[in-house]
């Protein structure tokens, strides 16, 4: 999940510089806990979480996974099938890589196609195009609804379970640990953890045991290879942001009660798991009407988890209001909490822009942490452009977090740049630590593939060669 917001960071050392656990294998079976502004293990040794987010897994954002097609890629496929590939591609290149196929883009495409192919052929192409609305999104809702409509809830859940087992494998987790990282952030949504219809607001939570079995296995492998996991809710009932739909979480007591139930269930299953570094209670709660509503909801969740005899670290995200807006934890009686934000400099175009952001925000972030006296965790960051200055800036960000004693996880571990965009525009991104597709992708078509074909294509992701982005790996690998 990516916020369209801009934030800076601090390079100031806002914590005491004591001994720091080296990247690599988990060194204690005890739960991590907060000691002032530090995270420490059972022996009192500082643990800085350094890792990657497993984007596209339980919370399936298909702009990451290249499952199905963005609008321009769907039109490309339709054009090739109709025998107009070169002309359609020329029009797409001129119109640009629109993912949603909005009205303005479609109108521009129509003008270009009519000039090349005439009105009748254009009408036929666009009529076919309209049958397959784009499901590219920062939410998994559109994807899940297509699968449910075609295959029912059970078919949807079985297909997504197959995908999860292939997208992040045991070998992926071992590779992450071998690079020196000690943490994976595990994005999850309440929809992915439940087995219910995705039409309408939830009235109850029915647990998806396929999904929980995947999480159980992931935590087992994490323990084996020396990783800890941050379990992170990307979408709660009612929505803490508006990626999927208008948020009702802060105003609807029923959605709040379901969110408490969700976290109580997660806590009951994992409260004794030392391979769980922390629970990230609400990723990017940016639709809260004010700080007080955000904090009151957090208080419900913290209270429920602590009442469940669970003392895991709890990550509290600022909702892009600024970490300094988060309360004194003593005011709510919160213990073992970590304060967090996500950092994406969307308007940056040079290393100098990042250097300016680092300098500007340094004093502010140092002061807020000194007052709050809690650890800080940058749960998500990336410079995302495939440019030398962007990789240099990613290294600057990582170094800034290290200097401040903050934990951090890169967004994201694996990302497949859209093969059609690569072919038409030659564009690649720096989103994925593993982000270089080698060979061809047998792309899942959620609208046209039958269930058996989708299952086969999903399972094939386990063997898909997505090579490391060496420039990004060099910039952010622990110890680099």
Structure, described:
The strands form four sheets. An eight-stranded parallel beta barrel has the order 3-4-5-6-7-8-9-11. It has helices at residues 62-65, 71-81, 85-95, 103-117, 119-130, 141-167, 170-178, 190-193, 209-225, 253-270, 291-307, 329-332, 351-372, 388-404, 419-425, 451-459, 470-476; strands at residues 33-35, 38-40, 50-53, 183-189, 228-235, 276-280, 313-317, 337-343, 376-381, 384-385, 407-410, 429-430, 434-438, 465-468. 44% of the residues lie in helices and 14% in strands. The chain starts with 32 loop residues before the first strand and ends with a helix. β1 (33-35) and β2 (38-40) form a beta hairpin. The chain is built from 17 helices and 14 strands. By secondary structure, the protein is of the alpha/beta class. The chain has two domains: 33-66 and 137-476, TIM Barrel (Alpha-Beta Barrel); 71-130.
Q: Would you spell out the secondary-structure blueprint of this structure?
A:
Layout: E1 33-35, E2 38-40, E3 50-53, H1 62-65, H2 71-81, H3 85-95, H4 103-117, H5 119-130, H6 141-167, H7 170-178, E4 183-189, H8 190-193, H9 209-225, E5 228-235, H10 253-270, E6 276-280, H11 291-307, E7 313-317, H12 329-332, E8 337-343, H13 351-372, E9 376-381, E10 384-385, H14 388-404, E11 407-410, H15 419-425, E12 429-430, E13 434-438, H16 451-459, E14 465-468, H17 470-476
Parallel strand pairs: 3-4, 3-11, 4-5, 5-6, 6-7, 7-8, 8-9, 9-11
Antiparallel strand pairs: 1-2, 10-12, 13-14
Helix pairs in contact: 2-3, 2-5, 3-4, 4-5, 6-16, 7-9, 10-11, 13-14, 14-17
């Amino acid at each position: 999940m990516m916020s369209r917001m801009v934030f800076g960071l601090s390079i100031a050392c806002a914590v005491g510089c004591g001994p720091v656990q080296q990247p690599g294998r988990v060194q204690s079976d005890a739960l991590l806990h907060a000691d002032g502004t530090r995270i420490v293990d059972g022996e009192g040794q500082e643990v800085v979480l350094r890792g990657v987010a497993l984007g596209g897994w339980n919370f399936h954002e298909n702009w990451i996974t290249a499952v199905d097609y963005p609008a321009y890629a769907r039109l490309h496929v339709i054009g090739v099938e109709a025998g107009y590939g070169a002309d359609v591609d020329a029009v797409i290149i001129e119109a640009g890589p629109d993912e949603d196929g909005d009205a303005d883009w479609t109108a521009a495409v129509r003008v270009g196609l009519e000039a090349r192919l005439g009105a009748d052929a254009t009408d036929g192409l666009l009529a076919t195009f309209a049958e397959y609305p784009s499901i590219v999104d920062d939410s998994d809702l559109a994807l899940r609804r297509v699968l449910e409509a075609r295959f029912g809830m059970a078919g949807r859940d079985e297909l997504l379970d197959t995908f999860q087992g292939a997208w992040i494998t045991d070998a992926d987790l071992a590779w992450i640990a071998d690079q020196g990282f000690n943490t994976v952030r595990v994005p999850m949504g309440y929809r992915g953890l439940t087995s219910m219809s995705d039409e309408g607001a939830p009235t109850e939570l029915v647990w998806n045991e396929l999904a929980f079995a995947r999480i159980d296995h992931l935590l087992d492998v994490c323990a084996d290879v020396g990783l800890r996991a941050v379990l992170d809710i990307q979408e709660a009932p009612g929505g803490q942001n508006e990626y999927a739909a208008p948020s009702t979480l802060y105003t609807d007591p029923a959605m709040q009660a379901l969110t408490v139930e969700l976290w109580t269930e997660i806590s009951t299953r994992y409260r004794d798991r030392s391979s769980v570094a922390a629970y990230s209670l609400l990723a990017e709660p940016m639709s809260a009407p004010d700080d007080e509503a955000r904090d009151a909801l957090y208080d419900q969740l913290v209270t429920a988890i602590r009442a469940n005899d669970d003392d895991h670290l709890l990550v509290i995200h600022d909702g892009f209001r600024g970490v300094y807006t988060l309360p004194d934890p003593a005011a709510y009686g919160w213990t073992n909490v970590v304060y967090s934000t996500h950092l994406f400099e969307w308007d940056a175009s040079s290393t100098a822009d990042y250097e300016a952001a680092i300098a500007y925000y340094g004093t502010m972030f140092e002061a807020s942490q000194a007052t709050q006296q809690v650890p800080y965790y940058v749960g998500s960051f990336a410079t995302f452009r495939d440019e030398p200055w962007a990789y240099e800036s990613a290294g600057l960000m990582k170094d800034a977090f290290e200097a401040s004693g903050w934990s951090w996880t890169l967004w994201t571990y694996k990302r497949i740049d859209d093969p059609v965009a690569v072919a038409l525009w030659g564009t690649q991104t720096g989103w994925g630590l593993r982000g270089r597709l080698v060979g061809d992708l047998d792309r899942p078509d959620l609208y046209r593939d039958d269930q058996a074909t989708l299952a086969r294509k999903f399972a094939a992701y386990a063997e898909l060669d997505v090579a490391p982005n060496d420039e990004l790996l060099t910039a952010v690998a622990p110890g680099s």
